[in-house]
Amino acid sequence: MIALEAINVTKIYGAGANAITAVDDVSLSIKRGEFVGLVGPSGSGKTTMLAMLAGLLKPSQGQIVIAGKDIGRMSEGKRTKFRGRYIGFAFQANNLVPFLTAQENVELLLRLNGKFNRQGRQRTLDLLERLGLSDRLKNRPGQLSGGQQQRIAIARALIHEPEVVLADEPTASLDTERAHQVVQTFAELIHEQNRAGVMVTHDLRMCKYVDRVIQMMDGRISRVITDVREISRLAGAADELDGGYVVHTNDKPALAGDPMVAVQGI
Amino acid sequence: MSFYLAIKEVWRNKGRFLLIASVVALITTLVLFIAALAEGLAAANREYIEKLNGELLVFQEGTQLSTTASRIGRGSIAELRRVEGIEAVGQVGFSTLKLVPPDGGEDINVSFIGVEPGMPGEPTVYDGQQLMRSSSNNVIVDEGVVARLGVKVGDAIRLKVTQGTQEEFYDLTVAGLTDRRQYFFQPAVFAPILTWDKIRPGGGAGNPSADLVSNIAVVKLNDPAQLGTMKTTIEQNVKDVEVADRQRAWEAIPGYAAQQSTLTTQQFFTFFIGVLVVGGFFQIQTLQKVAQIGMLKAIGLSNWTVGWTAIIQIVTVNAIGVAIGAVGTLALTANFPVTVPILLTGTAALTTVLALLAIGPLGGIVSVFVLLRIEPLRALGMAQ
What we know:
The complex is a heterodimer. Chain A has helices at 46-53, 76-86, 102-112, 118-130, 146-159, 176-193, 228-239, and strands at 2-13, 20-31, 35-39, 61-66, 69-70, 87-90, 164-168, 196-200, 212-217, 220-225, 245-247, 262-264. In chain A, the strands form three sheets. In chain A, strands 6-7-8-3-9-10 form a six-stranded mixed sheet, with helices on both faces. Chain A has a four-stranded antiparallel sheet with strand order 2-1-4-5, covered by helices on one side. Chain A has a two-stranded antiparallel sheet with strand order 11-12. Helices cover 33% and strands 26% of the residues of chain A. Chain A is an alpha/beta fold. Chain A is built from seven helices and twelve strands. The termini of chain A are far apart. Chain A has a single domain (31-58, 73-261), classed as Rossmann fold (3-Layer(aba) Sandwich). The longest helix of chain A has 18 residues, at 176-193. Chain B is an alpha+beta fold. Chain B has two domains: 2-46 and 256-379, no CATH class; 62-239, no CATH class. Chain B is built from twelve helices and ten strands. Chain B is elongated. Chain B starts with a helix and ends in a 5-residue tail after the last helix. Chain A binds chain B through residues 13, 20, 22, 47-48, 50-51, 54, 56-57, 77, 80-85, 87, 89, 91-95, 97-100, 104, 108-109, 111-112, 140, 156, 168, and chain B through 1, 4-5, 8-9, 12-13, 291-292, 294-303, 376-377, 379-382, 384.
C-alpha cells in the first residue's frame, strides 16, 4: 500500500533570471514497510525533496500525497498539524528538547496527538527498551551520547505511529559503529511497524539497511537501485575502505562503480 | 501542551529563571517602595484635609488656597452660616509648634490645629472623648503623636511655642485619640479654636476682644451631591472667599504636586526599565532557542502552542518575581518606624502590583513575535 507519493514535484527558488530549480519534476512513491535511502551530492535537491515530503516546504508544482491528502495544498497551520499526526522526524542535530528527559522527549508526540495514556506510556517504555535505553529514561539530552540522542529521536519519530518516517542525515554526528547501530535499528523498526521510511544521507555505507536507493542529481532522480545485491555492493564499496567516507565532487554522485567517484580512506 | 512545556522548562532551568525572577522582584521592591513613599509623603501632607468631615474648604480670596496665607474672620463665618444648603461651618486654624517629650528627648514638631468642638474640622476620636468647650485645655492627638510619645487619654502633654523671642510652655490634657491625621508632614494636635488662638505664635493671648481669625472654614453641606453648585453659591454670597473641595485643597499644598509628579516619573521609569529587562532576557533566551523552536514546529507544534508556551513562561516568571518582591516589601514596610513616610495602602499596592504583572507580557511581547516568525527549515539548517 502506498504511504507517500510525490507526483511531478518541482521546486523553484527565486524568480525570473535568478530562479533556481532545486527539484525538477520528480515523481516517486513509497510503500508501507519500505525504507528508502535518498542520496546524492550537495545541491542535488535531496534535502529540498525531503523538506517537501515533510510538508516543511510547499512544492512550486506537483503534489505530495500522504495518507491520501495533498499536503502541498494545505495551509501552514494545517500542514503543521498534519506533520504532528502523520509524519515522524529524525534530524541531523538539535533533535531533542533539552529540558525534557529521554522518556518525556519520546512522549511529547503522544501528548501532541492526545495519545498520552497508560498504553502510550507503556509503548514508550517498550520502544526505549528495544533501543537499549531503559537505563537512560530519566536522563536529559545533555547527559546522553550522540548515539543515544539519535536513538531517542528515532523512538520519538515512531512512537505516535505515523504514516511516514523521515530522517535527514541521522548519522552525521555519529562514529561508524554508532551510525550502523542507529540506522540498523531504524530500519528494523520501520519494517516491524510497517511504516514508510525515507533517509537522506551522504554516507553510502548506511544504504545497506535500505530497501531502495534513490539517487538525485541536479534536482532530478538520476538512478534508482532496488536490487539487493547492487545496494550491498554500493554500501560495501564504502565499507571496505576500513571505515572510510565516500567523498564526492560537487556535481557528481557518490556511487560505487562510478569512475567519477573519488573514494578516500581516513 | 503549552502549559506542560512552559512549566517543565522553568522547573528544569530553575537557576536561570530564578535569576530573572529575582530581577523582577527587585524592580517590584523598588516600584512598591516608590509607590509607598509617594503615598506616605502625600498622606503626611494631606491626611487631615483628606479625612475632613466636610465637603468644602473656604479660603480667603487671592491666597491661592494656601492655608497659611488665608485668613477667615468671624464675619465671614457668620455669612457662611446664613447660606442655604450648608449644614454646618467650622473654623480651622493651622500653626506649627513643638511638643516636648516628658522623658526629655528631642522636641517633636507638630501641626497644632485649632478646631471648633462639634463642628466640621474636628476629628472623630476612637478613644476618649471629643472636645467639649472652645476654651478648654483638652486636646485630641493623632496616632502620629501616640506613636512618638506613647501618650494615652488623660495624659498631659507639653507644648512649646516661641512668642517673639520668648519661649512659652503650655500643658494640655489628652482628651481623645484619633487616627493618623498628619498635616504638612507633622503629626497633629487638635485644640479648641480659642485655646489654639491663645497658644499659637502671634495669637490672640492677652487680647480677648480681638476678632477670632482662623485660616480656613470647613463646610458641611446638607446634600454633598450639590458640591459644585454650592461652591458657586458660597462664592456669590460670601465676600472675599474662594472655595475648594478637599482634593483641590490638598493639591494646592505647596510642593505637593511637584513632589507627586517627581515620584510618578520615577515609578514610570522603573516600570520602563522593568519592561526592558524582562524583554531583553526573554529575547536572548528566544534567540538561543531558535533551533529548538524550529524542531518543535517541524514535528508538529503549532505557532499557537509555541506562542502560548512563551507567554505562560513570561507570566509565570514575572508573577513569581512580583510575588517575592511584593511580600518582601510588605514585610519590610510593616516594620518601618512611624516617622518614615512609607505608607503602602491596599489600593496603591494593588494598582502597582497589577501594573508590575503587566511588565512581563509587555516586555516579552517582542520575543513572542520572534518565536512565531521562526521558520523550521531555516532553524534546522535545511533552507536553501
